[in-house]
Amino acid sequence: MNQRLTLILPENLNVDECHSRIEDITEEYMVIAMPMTKGYPVIIPNGSVVLGRVVSKGQVYQFESRVLGKRISPLPVWLLTLPTNIVKVQQRSFVRLDIVLPAKMQVLTPDNETDEASLSDNRVFTKNISGGGLCLITGEPVDIGTQLQMEVEIPEQEVLRVIGRVARVEKPQNDRQLFWIGVEFLDVSESIRSRIIRFVFKKQLEQRQKQI
Questions:
Q1: Strand partners, 97
Q2: Please, are residues 17 and 9 in contact by the beta-carbon 8 Å criterion?
Q3: Confidence check: pLDDT of 43 > 60
């Protein structure tokens, strides 16, 4: 009760994320204050699936829920199904999606300028992506600590442009010139981070629905 929560909504609502508060919890559903954005209530169809995040005792938890309905009186609220697929999210960590996406990368100089003689012309691919970083599949190694400027082509979205630092490098097969470059994002805007999280959430839902 009265716990704050963050909601990440379906992409077609054009709202990155919004905030609310838990008003009540019953055996059948959860009641939250009607989320607002820019002073207006968020409009969402009943049946929509949302992703929620709450902080409890310093730990972040992420869950899925579905909008059952709304009430206006005595207070404007949403009715949500009880949380499902609850996961503990480590600090500065995010749910990761294994997916191959076209990407580009450029090595940054110490002055944060792109090194035109580096890998700027290489088109690479992602191995996975999350709100905190990604893993690139490349044909050449990159030194740990190197800063990269990257462009990632996410379906049905504008190309994402982010800067990151190489945190790890793996060579999965000894007989192939292939490398996995783990990159953590640096100073990524919350808008871009939310877009990535929503994309990951959407793809996870699609995968579960296919399994069903």
A1: 129
A2: yes
A3: yes
Predicted pLDDT of residue 29: 95
Q: Read off the pLDDT of residues 165-193 as tens digits, 9 standing for 90 and up.
A: 999 999 998 888 999 999 999 888 877 88
Q: Of 121, 156, 115, which is closest to residue 139 (Cα–Cα)?
A: 121
pTM for the full predicted model: 0.62
